[in-house]
Amino acid sequence: MEIFAILVCIFLFLSTLVISFPFIKKNKPTSKPKLPPGSMGWPYIGQTLQLYSQHPNIFFASKQKRYGEIFKTHILGCPCVMLASPEAARFVLVTHSHLFKPTYPKSKEKLIGSSALFFHQGDYHTRIRKLVQTSLSPESIKKLIPDIETQVISSLESWVSVRHVINAFCEMKKFSFNIGILSVFGNLENNYREQLKENYSIVEKGYNSFPTRIPGTAYSKALLARKRIHEIISEIICKKREQKLIEKVLLSHLLNYKDEKEEMLTDEEIADNVIGVLFAAQDTTASVLTWILKYLHDDQKLLEAVKAEQMSIYEANERGKIPLSWNQTRNMPITHRVILESLRMSSIISFTFREAVVDVVYKGYLIPKGWKVMPLFRNIHHNPEFYVNPQSFDPSRFEVSPKPYTFMPFGNGVHSCPGNELAKLNMLILIHHLVTKFRWEVEGYESGVEYSPFPIPMHGLPTRFLRD
Ligand code: HEM
Ligand SMILES: *[C@@H]1O[C@H](CO)[C@@H](O)[C@H](O)[C@H]1NC(C)=O
Ligand SMILES: *[C@@H]1O[C@H](CO)[C@@H](O)[C@H](O)[C@H]1NC(C)=O
């Protein structure tokens, strides 16, 4: 009986294959993957204006509600596919990352330098990334703690000494730039640091302005400043080569690198990557620090808890006479959760861009070659399926680890942020000194978000710092 049934099954199965084969073939055009749903907006301007004129949560959430986890749209003149689920982010950034390359506007690539690692894919990227990762690994950044503390204390002292209200974001930027310099160059002579800072701020102003070479425009000034930065870095490289520097910072890793053919990196490649890292480190860290100031200011009970945690470390260190140890920075659970929750809430890198290098099919949808692909970190971080009551600031939710691919403030996969440990370390150290010795008041408080280009609190959070 059984044998008979099986034979019948096999026969039926084979006959369906035979019968349906030409049938399938004929029908192939209809089973061709289709484009994802969504509206493309007006040509060129597309939905860019909507993206930048609304609160970031609203733009993406309304799209996702309408179309689901994958939809198409137009951003800055490019057709693109937005992806709003953890699986889709994993597909693009991790499991199928070779099908998607990083993509930036040429005008921006020129300002940072085309050899900077985040524009690349493949061998060159892997080589440079290894150097950057080594110089930013826990082993390396441990040694930076005393210098970071010195920088933190000097920044805090300067904010108190002005006595009036300051733009917290601007100040956090200066702080983050100095830490960036520290992690790239180690201790750098003051005059170089000042020259880099001045010229860098000109580059920044051009970065988000209209790209034209007409003299006098922000963009053309930025290109000139970029050239001067290159000259400054070349001079530093020259000096450091003579000194045979021993400091294990990014610059020395870049200078000492030799590939299998004993070839070294060119000065151009070194300079582009130095500028790239400074660029990646500054506004990101500063934006998150500004949000942390706001969130802690808005929740005094939470601030008290953070303060209690930091005070016990401060007392153990004889009220700041003994410097912070690496171990202590690893044992600040409440403060650490405040940082994680601030990263989730603010999601300052709301999404990233890739470009499909071939036609790709994801869950039956076609992503045509050349189209941009945007994994939407913010949507994932604000999805009630993964974060209960996502709009409320609640660090205790991080008492349990988030599910895989639902927490990506530092991206994921081959291009994920190599500076994430350093960024967190900076924040921990700044919070430690801030809450143990100072307090702050937010003045003329206005809720709302502005773009710097990352989302930051309105007006950069006007704040007055006071000694406690
Ligand atoms: C809170 C602060 C920071 C945030 C939220 C952040 C976020 C990110 C994200 C999301 C990416 C991946 C972008 C993508 O996949 O397209 C990234 C890449 C990168 N970040 Fe960060 N970052 C921060 C701080 C830093 C710092 C302090 C450094 C260096 C000192 C740094 C250096 C880099 C570099 C070099 C890349 C490019 C990596 C590659 O392409 O392989 N970042 N960052
Ligand atoms: C920029 O760098 C140059 C050195 O290349 C330096 O002379 C100048 O003072 C710096 N600052 C500005 C604003 O140009
Ligand atoms: C690190 O900190 C933990 C908790 O504060 C402590 O139990 C441990 O002994 C410390 N380890 C070192 C090596 O200091």
Descriptive report:
This protein is of the alpha+beta class. The protein has a domain of 117 residues: 2-Layer Sandwich (Uridine Diphospho-n-acetylenolpyruvylglucosamine Reductase, domain 2). Helices cover 55% and strands 10% of the residues. The protein contains 18 helices and twelve strands. It has a five-stranded mixed beta sheet with strand order 1-2-8-5-3. It has a three-stranded antiparallel beta sheet with strand order 4-12-9. The longest helix has 32 residues. The chain is globular. The structure holds protoporphyrin IX containing FE and 2-acetamido-2-deoxy-beta-D-glucopyranose (NAG) (2 copies). Its EC number is 1.14.14.137. Belongs to the cytochrome P450 family. GO terms for molecular function: (+)-abscisic acid 8'-hydroxylase activity; heme binding; iron ion binding. Its cofactor is heme.
